[in-house]
Design brief:
- The chain has 210 residues and is an alpha+beta fold.
- It has two domains: 123 residues, Structural Genomics Hypothetical 15.5 Kd Protein In mrcA-pckA Intergenic Region, Chain A (Roll), CATH 3.10.290; 42 residues, no CATH class.
- It has five helices and eight strands.
- The protein has an eight-stranded mixed beta sheet with strand order 5-4-3-6-7-1-2-8.
- A hairpin with a 5-residue loop joins strand 6 and strand 7.
- Helix 1 packs antiparallel against helix 5 and helix 3 crosses helix 4.
- The chain starts with 6 loop residues before the first strand and ends in a 25-residue tail after the last helix.
Length: 210
């Protein structure tokens, strides 16, 4: 008996950032896009504190109760009713937008359709590179300036930006185990989202992706 294809592998990359910030994820194909949203929030260490939507084939997918009031005239299709499986027969890439002010755009590429036995209960990050930017840092171009100020102790914004980052921020940080822990917790009610990177122990280096 041939195992049914029941999962998807996605490559997700933040646009307009160099060197790239990316994650490779596997999740059940029957999951709806509101669940994918929560996985992406955890994978990039976002805090789910802003509006968001998906752009797929020229259409908008999100929560119509939030997005059809004052955020454009195009109809928003309810992402709670649309599954990844509805798109797996297509060669598809789409966009996930988080925070309409900072305009963080994630390019999501459907790399493969998998037959997993057993099907994992949770999504999983297989690999990735670099830390997700802090929330409210201002978008890709402001993020570049933010990194510059952290690297220059004499910059007038150095101390304030360091405090904003929780006292420590390494743009090369990537801890696969911790990110997967965040992903596993992403569907829990009243989950406390991690706002900042863990500070490295004295004498220990941060874990880096490639």
């Amino acid at each position: 008996m041939v195992q049914e294809r029941n999962a998807v592998r996605l490559l997700v990359t933040l646009e307009d950032i160099d060197p790239p910030i990316w994650r490779r994820l596997v999740l059940p194909s029957t999951w709806t896009f509101d669940r994918l949203h929560l996985v992406l929030q955890a994978a990039f260490s976002w805090t789910d504190s802003h509006l968001h939507e998906f752009h797929i084939g020229g259409l908008r997918y999100g929560n119509p109760e939030l997005l059809d009031i004052g955020f454009g005239t195009a109809t928003t299709f309810d992402y709670r009713t649309v599954r990844m499986a509805d798109f797996i027969d297509r060669d598809i890439a789409f966009t996930y937008v988080y925070d309409f002010g900072d305009n963080w755009r994630h390019r999501v590429v459907l790399e493969d359709i998998l037959a997993l036995d057993p099907l994992p209960r949770h999504a999983e990050c297989l690999e990735g590179a670099r830390a997700g930017p802090p929330d409210d840092v201002g978008g890709p171009w402001s993020y570049a300036e933010f990194i510059e100020t952290l690297q220059d102790a004499e910059h007038e914004d150095h101390e304030s930006n360091l405090r904003w980052a929780g006292g420590h921020f390494d743009p090369e940080w990537f801890d696969l185990a911790l990110i997967n822990k965040d992903i596993r917790n992403s569907f829990r009610a009243n989950v406390r989202r991690r706002w900042h990177q863990p500070k490295p122990l004295i004498g220990k280096s941060s874990k880096h992706g490639d």
